[in-house]
Amino acid sequence: MARVKRGTTKARHRRSVLKLAKGYRFGRRSKEKQAKEAIRHAGVHAFNHRRRKKADFRRLFTVRLNAAVRNFDINYSTFINALKKKEIALDRKVLSQIADEHPETFERIVNQIKA
Fold it and tell me: Which of 48, 57, 58, 80 has its CA 20 to 30 A from that of 16?
């Protein structure tokens, strides 16, 4: 069987790993083993934070809605409960956008709930 030399393959792999670790600090940007580990950890964090981002935004929508409905002498929980009872199917994201960009429309929604 013929001998296989892996110099070019190995170099290409090392280059690709170090390219992914560009901008990292200390040995993690220049040493292949440390770079691989750093990239693996970065991938885990990126995956988890993509999930966390959804919760963070939901929290932001809640805070915005609470601030908006306080102008109408209601609190957030009462507002959401009234929405469910009146069967108005708008999610928190849409309601928060309406409150921010179209206050007159939001006021009509609140008045509809109060009545």
Answer: 48
Tens digits of residue pLDDT in 80-105? 999 999 998 999 999 999 999 999 99
Phi-psi region of 103 (alpha: psi -120 to 50; beta: other; left: phi over 0): alpha
Dihedral of CA 94/100/103/106: which sign? positive
Parse the chain into domains and list their residue ranges. Answer: 7-114
CA dihedral of 87, 92, 95, 99, whole degrees rounded to 10: 140
Contact (Cβ atoms closer than 8 angstroms) between residue 108 and residue 74 = no
Residue 6 binned pLDDT confidence (cut-offs 50, 70, 90): confident
CATH architecture assignment, domain 7-114: Orthogonal Bundle (1.10)
